[in-house]
């Protein structure tokens, strides 16, 4: 799969290197390289965009209590996407070219068709997509300030699933509600189903400041431990100049089991830039000078979470993360983080991670 994508990219590069003339039978074409490579007609009837990301990570995880002592230098994510629209219909396909932990690549991330005919206040998406749940989960992996998402998000947020979703947005609000498969891909996807919804509101949204409020809920049929799992979360986030903060609380009822957890994250862009905010999520920092931008972050979380990043089990515990990021330009980011976790039963573990990221 990776060789096929590499061959495609080489072919595109070879064609683009030759002199020639581009002509069309219809409207003039507009080429935009601000985010990936986008080609669209001047009347905006149709568009085509190619983009992706590569994340190379060094990861050292140690937990003496659990006998974990690993060091790895591997591709964390390598993805290519194609998206576009014609008239009121849009699409997106995104695939992993390769991924760490022994995966061969070729896995589908996004694969959906979207109807845009109702305008921004309502769109209908059919296919594999992210369920509308969780601020950190819905923030792209290339844009999150910490290199890895919190143990709480890993534990409670459902991620991507096949299904149908109605969503919309205004100047300072968003919503999404959908009906999804509950057990992931397989031959019996909709034997167990889920209903998931999220809404956000930004009572303050200016160039200098943002206050973000959000809430999500998912109810899921299950076969193991409980017939039904009900989970909700609350979001609070903000930005004031170069400072940004976000927090989420999760609570889940899984049969007779009731578990919860939270995280709080603080960040400071030392070079003065602000972290962008759009449509209910935050984006990565964009440097305002050729010297790049520096950011430091700290995160604390506590509760029932998935602490596998530090070699611990999914159980009650706490974890602290410290990180620093250097944004060389809008495409390149270098980051380093240290995570330290401890479970209520006394086991502990830590992780050192460094990342080189190129996103286009």
UniProtKB/TrEMBL annotation:
Name listed for the protein in its UniProt record: Phosphate-selective porin O and P
Record InterPro entries: Porin_dom_sf (IPR023614), Porin_O/P (IPR010870)
Signal peptide start and end residues: 1-19
Listed Gene3D superfamilies: Porin
Domain of life the protein comes from: Bacteria
Parts forming coiled coils: none
Keywords annotated in UniProt: Signal
